[in-house]
Design a protein that fits this description.
heterodimer; A: mainly alpha; two-stranded antiparallel ribbon; flat; B: D-Maltodextrin-Binding Protein, domain 2; five-stranded mixed beta sheet
Chain lengths: 297, 418
């Protein structure tokens, strides 16, 4: 075993220090500060009052801060992301990866929603969801909504509305192209010789995908699952734009965080939500890694 | 001769310099200021800010003002975050009562008592009530607004009414007659995040049922939400919903769409802030601005309105030149009030010492309503603390969704808001 020389150690310290400092200042320090403030009742200005774990307790017990409802919503989103969005992305990636005609064109078309600003997407879907908007008219044209039936209230925040579904649908749609691109890169990484060999042995294109391409893409799929689960947990922009930050039916942890912190001036409560979000993201990333590692072994 | 000419030239130059000095004195103010507002392009107050700033530039050419506007909701986040970092503009827009109160409490706002003396004859003391804390003034009110019941008289005529009913019983009969003719009586935005539009109906209902003193006391924390009048008002609102006085589609619409629908003749009434007067008057419809009738005459009376001076300019205590900012703030506030009033985006909080005959007919009608007002209760989402406001608006949402009875509404809020 070789021993590092003193000059090597100094070089390592010199090169690593700026990055470590930056990492600590931008990531670690705010996390520690959030954890600290989560034990206080603080309005953002003035003195903070220590309240122990009561912010955390309130999150799970009070009707006024419907965190369980936000968690339920975010798990629905994460579930749909993993079991609906990712299979669609995978399907598209596999089809495009076979080198079909217009491969580049379809790749770009599917990726366009990722490039469009979320604000624009929210505005577009708001138009689609209007009571007299595109979707209701389409449903009438298709005969799903009969004459005399009320319009479907996609953006109504209550038992008569479908706000949660209306928020989730564009979120799934927007990132199909993103995951498709990652998976497409994975598909293209599979050696053409392997494909050809399987074809010569009489495998159908589906069998090639099922037994050769998909198993070779496990690492890419793992990354996509981590991205889609942690992305769901952190989702903020579309829920905030379509459902606002006060909604209970379409509450998400991040919108709740913003509502508590900046609307209700409860910085302690907002910090508690932030801490739980960070912990959940770490926990799920580790869990997904563990699940995929198990299969490796 | 040369000596004479030289003397004349020297005298002329000295006089010119003296003249320049006098000019500067005339300008009075000089320096650089920053200004934060919510008057983004498209906002009903945007033209008033532009005109006011243009006039201020002419009046005070030596004051350089850098204005930055942010949309309403984003501004609330921005100003609160900036206050924590002590990085706020010299003059900033704010809402009165609890919103400004938090900043005042933490020493972030410059006291305007001394400067107010200079403008006391133009700005009535009563208009500063919502920005006065512990007897000290901290804000310059701009325009004031009240909740107004706008009625489309042409639609009322179709239901057999030549004018807006003045009693509650007649109003209910009128709504039933409108429904019979296939006309939706009221327009109210109910989509997510539009709770404030629902309060424009619920707060007047509470005031006209329980009395303005009760509503005011509840918002100020001196009375309990658990009041029979409050419960009755919510039950009345629930009845309106059940009877179909509001369009079902409105539950998924925002205020801009509902306002556009009212202008398109889809509803007979639209109850919202008086800042809509300009737009509605320009629509060409035959509209009348009035107040919601009294429901319980033993507790309420006509002239008890929701609203008051709320839009405010304040001076950041950390400004490099607080005196300059304070004076500029008063001068600018006065002009924004003037041009806002003339454009129909609000009523004047300042005395009207200018020609105002061109004010649109709806603003003039609302001005008369306010003249006859005997009690103004500021909007609940401004008068209450931010924390209480969020709880209140969540309960308002439940009431709109028909998820709570009047009694439950009153009890829930009494329990949650202490």
């Amino acid at each position: 075993m070789k021993h590092r020389s003193t000059s090597d150690t100094i070089s390592i310290i010199v090169f690593l220090t700026p990055a470590v400092l930056l990492f600590a200042a931008i990531l670690i320090a705010p996390m520690v500060m959030s954890a600290y403030y989560s034990f206080f009742d603080w309005k953002g200005l003035g003195e903070a009052k220590f309240v122990g774990i009561s912010n955390y307790k309130e999150l799970f017990t009070s009707e006024l801060t419907p965190f369980p409802s936000a968690l339920k919503n975010v798990f629905i989103l994460a579930g749909l992301s993993v079991f609906l969005q990712l299979p669609i992305s995978l399907g598209l990636a596999l089809i495009l990866g076979r080198g079909i005609k217009g491969e580049r064109f379809f790749l770009s078309v599917n990726f366009i929603p990722v490039l469009i600003s979320t604000v624009v997407i929210a505005m577009l879907w708001k138009v689609i969801y209007q009571p007299k908007g595109l979707l209701n008219n389409l449903l009438r044209m298709l005969g799903i909504l009969k004459e005399g039936d009320n319009n479907i209230l996609f953006l109504a925040d209550g038992p008569k509305g479908h706000l949660l579904g209306s928020v989730i649908a564009p979120m799934l749609w927007q990132y199909v192209g993103y995951h498709m691109l990652l998976m497409y890169a994975g598909v293209k990484n599979v050696s053409p010789e392997l494909r050809e060999a399987a074809m010569i042995d009489g495998a159908t294109p589906w069998q090639v995908d099922r037994f050769i391409v998909i198993p070779s893409m496990k690492q890419v799929i793992k990354v996509c699952v981590i991205f889609s689960v942690t992305g769901s947990l952190k989702s903020y922009d579309l829920p905030a734009l379509l459902a606002g930050m006060r909604s209970v039916t379409a509450a998400f942890p991040s919108t709740m965080l913003m509502n508590q912190m900046f609307k209700a001036n409860r910085y302690g409560m907002g910090s508690a939500i932030a801490v739980l979000l960070i912990l959940m993201c770490f926990a799920f990333a580790l869990l997904i890694n563990f699940i995929f590692r198990e299969k490796d072994e | 001769m040369k000596k004479f000419l030289a003397t004349v030239l020297v005298v002329v130059m000295v006089l010119s310099l003296a003249g320049c000095k006098d000019d500067k004195k005339k300008d009075g103010l000089s320096g650089k200021l920053t200004l934060w507002t919510i008057a983004v392009e498209g906002d009903s107050n945007y033209p008033a800010y532009q005109q006011a700033l243009k006039e201020m530039k002419e009046k005070y050419p030596n004051v350089e003002v850098k204005m930055e506007s942010t949309q309403n909701d984003d501004y609330k986040l921005k100003i609160k975050t900036a206050m924590q970092g002590n990085d706020v503009a010299d003059i900033f827009f704010t809402w009165s009562c609890a919103f400004l109160g938090d900043f005042v409490e933490n020493g972030k706002v410059y006291c305007l008592d001394d400067m107010y003396k200079k403008y006391a004859d133009k700005l009535p003391e009563a208009m500063c009530r919502n920005t006065t804390y512990n007897g000290k003034k901290y804000g310059v009110p701009l325009t004031m607004n009240v909740v107004t019941l706008f009625a489309n008289l042409d639609l009322l005529k179709k239901a057999g009414y030549d004018d807006v009913p003045t009693t509650y019983e007649d109003l209910i009969k009128c709504c039933d007659a409108l429904l019979a003719k296939g006309i939706i009586p009221f327009g109210c935005a109910g989509a997510a995040n539009q709770e404030w539009c629902i309060t424009e109906y619920i707060e007047p209902l509470i005031i006209k049922t329980a009395g303005a003193d009760v509503m005011d006391g509840i918002f100020q924390g001196t009375k309990s939400w658990n009041d029979d009048g409050v419960a009755k008002a919510i039950d009345t609102f629930n009845d309106f919903m059940k009877k179909g006085y509001f369009a079902a589609d409105d539950a998924a619409l925002d205020n801009d769409t509902v306002k556009a629908n009212f202008i398109a003749g889809e509803y007979a009434f639209y109850q919202n802030g008086s800042w809509n007067c300009g737009d509605l008057a320009a629509s060409g419809l035959n509209i009348k601005a009035c107040e919601f009738p009294v429901i319980d005459a033993s507790k309420s009376k006509l002239g008890q309105l929701t609203g008051g001076p709320n839009d405010t300019l304040a001076v950041f205590s950390g400004s490099k030149d607080c005196e300059l900012a304070a004076q500029y703030c008063f001068e600018l506030g006065q002009l924004i009030c003037k041009y806002g009033y003339l454009a129909g985006s609000g009523l004047p909080a300042w005395k009207v010492d200018y020609e105002a005959k061109d004010v649109n007919y709806l603003t003039a009608q609302v001005a008369k309503l306010v003249e006859g007002a005997n009690y103004l209760v500021l909007f609940g989402d401004n008068l209450q603390s931010t924390e209480a406001t969020e709880i209140y608006l969540k309960e308002i949402r439940k009431a709109y969704n028909g998820e709570v009875s009047g009694k439950q509404f009153a009890e829930d809020l009494a329990k949650a808001i202490r």
